[in-house]
Design brief:
With 846 residues, the protein is an alpha/beta fold. It contains 24 helices and 24 strands.
Length: 846
């Protein structure tokens, strides 16, 4: 009985109705509205696995699980087993249910990793032969089809022929006797074809009158020539009905023969629909799967929200739901929540009770991960007032009756002394409290019970009510896994300091707005706000001061201590939030630095790989040239002059290909410009120049999110060039820089030594797919990585053709700006007109 009362107090039926709206079938909706709460942990674990696997399956499928065609055919199955004859619509519903369930099984079979769902449909029988037979005999309108039997098809063919003859005869009469016809149409009365005849002209068309219009002006006459034909049609109709009934009777027998399997099929389909409804509802409330903990683990429910308030907020434009945090250590057995009225204490009790029930039936809990709570065998609640004028019970008596039933459900010894169902209004609670103070050293208890008590001990004398509440909570600490109680009694706050199984909590109150915040504070008892509210609302100061005197100074001191603790908690929460932001920023900075370091390492590997490929290509080319010289020497006359020529040719190849034979190119030094990328060897970083070197040879650079000022001698270019100081530039005379320039393809002017191309001037430029990059239609930011990769993959001292098109010119400008600062580019120029002109840039690599 108390279990049903608890569900009613927690408004469990409302949550079930909300859940039913997520079901796809009528059976699923009914099952959701009448959820059975498991009594074993194993059953709950199975339900949770079904919910989790259905969530996973819904995420994998584009449109989710489909229950199309599945309907409630339970009544049809019962009639079939009682030898009734099912209608065509009922048979068709059975066939579509078989097809819909088979589709469900096929979808689940495609995901063998979902073990719980596959186990559920493993023994499912969908009888495709029965489905096919029903569809063969019953059409989409639920009528018996002509193809069902040859006899039925023959009867209907005879009907069509007779009907056509009747129509022909009637059409002839309508034309011949047009003056006697009220309206040119053929209709039916009592299953016989008739025509409307004017009443005064009834003798013009001999026959049988089957009906008269309301006004009496029209007679519906069956002409004499069609009477026999209509008689034959009626006989054929009776034959048709008999044959159709025989077909439906045969199909009904086939259904009755497999009734047990079809009922199991319905049960499995309903289970799947209910699991899908749980999954969709759980995702809708942004819930997370619970984990049932051991007795030595703490209860963790962070950011827990009331599911009914979530529905109210989203569907009824309710207020935003204020979440609560419940972290209860394993040794705690009783939590006393104090605070002002309408502060959220009762909502806290209901939220926890609903969360436990949701977990038991396989629903996710609307809280942040991890969701960890014990398995409670039962949830027992006393929430709100229970008054009955018929029973002459007061508020206090109502609480006592319900608490007595709670103790009876717990199996405690103390209940046996107070078990009086017909107790009247109890004014003297001294005797009633004895039923809770009896202590059983070896109680017969249900250890895994959750008890929720609202305003424990209220409704009577404060002193005796407080004493009763203390005795009751101590009793429950011995007989229940966890008790959450709300109260206004200050004496209950001290229990925490007498017994380690007790804990205090309070609902926060804003002294400025004089309203609760609905936040739950742990470890701090609630303070009395009556005098403070009265003072701020304008009650005379002398009355408030007098009340303060009556209340005693100790009470005010306690309130001040509590207020100080609350302020300290708020400061700690603020600092914690700031620390979390700093930590988040630091993590993002670390990720950015790590990403850039990885990018630089990858680029270095690419450059190294490109250099190795270039060296291998040079060696292979040198070998080919040497082999060609040797072949020429072998084919010609063996003379000293030929040998000398061969030696000179090999020396020429060695001078051109071997690095040791090449004269190093003088590095004239460089001057860092704004936007250049430079390397800082002592820091192992690559940075961007923000300001040019000043007179003190110092410049500002940035790497990552950091900016710093470094000396000119601490930096170098990406290819190892050391910068020239201001003094050296003045001594040498500020002259040429080492900047690249662009020249039009048509210019034949000679180049300076600083701009000397890597390729000889007489070397023809050969354009291939390997040295051509097409970036037309790209943005500058997207094109730069493509150019960088193409430069890295190009052979040493090679040429890169970059096709950027004409367009607005912004892409060409961006490409030139990128090439201008790149350390591997010697120079670049626009292509000749026949090679693309201003739409193509040729870049020469060092």
């Amino acid at each position: 009985m108390i279990q049903a009362e608890t569900l009613e107090l927690l408004e469990w039926s409302r949550l079930c109705r909300h859940l039913s709206t997520f079901a796809a079938t009528k059976l699923g909706a009914i099952a959701a509205q009448h959820l059975k709460i498991p009594v074993r942990l194993e059953d709950t674990q199975t339900l949770l696995h079904q919910t989790q696997e259905t969530c996973e399956l819904e995420n994998r499928l584009t449109r989710g699980l489909s229950f199309e065609g599945i309907s409630d055919v339970g009544e049809s199955l019962e009639r079939a087993i009682l030898k009734g004859i099912l209608s065509g619509e009922e048979l068709l519903a059975i066939a579509t249910t078989l097809a819909g369930t088979r589709n469900l099984r096929r979808v689940i079979d495609d995901h063998p990793d979902l073990e719980t769902l596959n186990q559920l449909v493993a023994d499912l029988r969908t009888y495709p032969e029965l489905e096919q037979e029903i569809h063969r005999c019953i059409d989409d309108r639920g009528q018996v089809a002509d193809r069902a039997t040859p006899k039925l098809a023959g009867i209907r063919e005879q009907q069509r022929q007779l009907r056509d003859r009747v129509y022909d005869i009637l059409q002839g009469i309508l034309q011949r006797k047009a003056s006697a016809i009220q309206e040119h149409l053929i209709t039916q009365r009592e299953g016989r074809f008739v025509i409307p005849v004017k009443a005064p002209q009834k003798d013009a068309i001999p026959g049988i009158v089957h009906d008269i219009s309301v006004s009496g002006a029209t007679l519906y006459v069956e002409p004499q020539p069609t009477v026999n034909l209509n008689n034959q049609l009626r006989q054929l109709q009776r034959q048709e009905e008999a044959e159709a009934e025989a077909i439906r009777r045969t199909l009904t027998r086939q259904v009755a023969a497999v009734k047990a399997d079809l009922e199991r099929l319905l049960a499995i389909a309903t289970t799947l629909d209910l699991a899908t409804a749980r999954a969709r509802y759980s995702l809708w409330i942004e819930g997370n799967p619970p984990r049932f903990i051991q007795p030595s683990e703490p209860i963790v429910l962070r950011h827990l929200r009331h599911p009914l308030l979530i529905w109210q907020q989203r569907h009824e434009q309710g207020k935003p739901v204020v979440p609560i945090d419940l972290v209860i250590q394993p040794q705690i057995r009783v939590v006393a929540i104090t605070g002002p009225n309408t502060g959220g204490k009762t909502v806290t009790l209901k939220t926890l009770g609903l969360a436990v029930l949701m977990a038991k039936v396989g629903l996710f809990v609307p809280a942040r991960e991890p969701v960890e709570l014990p398995w409670f065998d039962q949830i027992l609640a006393d929430i709100g007032d229970e008054q009955s004028l018929q029973q002459s019970l007061s508020t206090f008596s109502g609480h006592i009756r319900r608490i007595s039933r709670i103790l009876e459900a717990l199996g405690g010894e103390g209940q046996r002394q107070g078990k009086q169902e017909d107790v009247e209004d109890v004014e003297d609670v001294g005797e009633a409290s004895n039923s809770f103070t009896t202590h059983n050293p070896e109680p017969t208890i249900v250890p895994q019970s959750l008890v929720l008590l609202d305003e424990v001990g209220a409704g009577t004398d404060p002193t005796e009510g407080s004493a009763l509440a203390i005795a009751l909570l101590k009793y429950l600490a011995d007989h229940a896994r966890l008790t959450i109680a709300t109260t206004h009694f200050g004496e209950l706050k001290a229990l925490k300091y007498q017994d380690e199984r007790f804990e205090n909590a309070s609902v926060e109150f804003d002294d400025v707005s004089l309203s609760p915040t609905y936040r739950l504070l742990w470890g701090i008892p609630g303070r009395s706000n009556a005098l403070a509210i009265a003072r701020r609302l304008g009650l005379k100061e002398e009355i408030v001061n007098q009340a303060q005197t009556y209340a005693g100074g100790a009470s005010e001191e306690v309130n001040q201590v509590i207020a100080g603790l609350e302020a300290q908690r708020r400061r700690q929460e603020k600092k914690s939030e700031e620390a979390a932001k700093i930590l988040d920023h630091a993590e993002r900075l670390h990720q950015e630095v790590a990403r850039k370091a990885a990018s630089l390492k990858e680029r270095e590997q690419q450059l190294q790989q490109a250099q190795e490929q270039a060296i291998q290509a040079a060696i292979a080319q040198a070998k080919q040239e040497i082999a060609q010289v040797i072949r020429q020497l072998q084919q010609g006359p063996m003379t000293a002059q030929a040998a000398q020529q061969a030696t000179d040719a090999i020396n020429t190849i060695a001078d051109r290909q071997l690095p040791s034979r090449q004269q190093p190119k003088p590095k004239p030094g460089f001057q860092p410009q704004v936007g250049d990328r430079v390397r800082i060897p002592r820091l192992g970083q690559t940075a961007e120049v923000l300001t040019a070197p000043d007179d003190n040879d110092e410049l500002t650079v940035r790497f990552g999110f950091m900016k710093m000022t470094v000396s000119l001698e601490d930096v170098e270019s990406l290819d190892g060039e050391k910068p020239v100081s201001q003094q050296e530039r003045r001594n040498k005379g500020a002259g040429t820089g080492n900047r690249k320039s662009i020249s039009p393809a048509s210019s034949n002017a000679s180049e300076t030594s600083a701009e000397k191309p890597s390729l000889p001037s007489d070397t023809p430029l050969i354009r291939t797919s390997r040295n051509t990059l097409d970036i037309r239609g790209s943005r500058v930011a997207d094109a730069e990585p493509l150019i960088e990769r193409a430069i890295a993959e190009a052979p040493e001292a090679g040429v890169l053709w970059i096709i950027h098109g004409h367009g607005t010119g912004k892409l060409r400008q961006g490409v030139h700006a990128f090439l201008q600062q790149h350390p591997q580019i010697e120079r670049f120029e626009l292509a000749k007109r026949e090679d693309g002109g201003a739409g193509v840039t040729i870049a020469y690599l060092r």
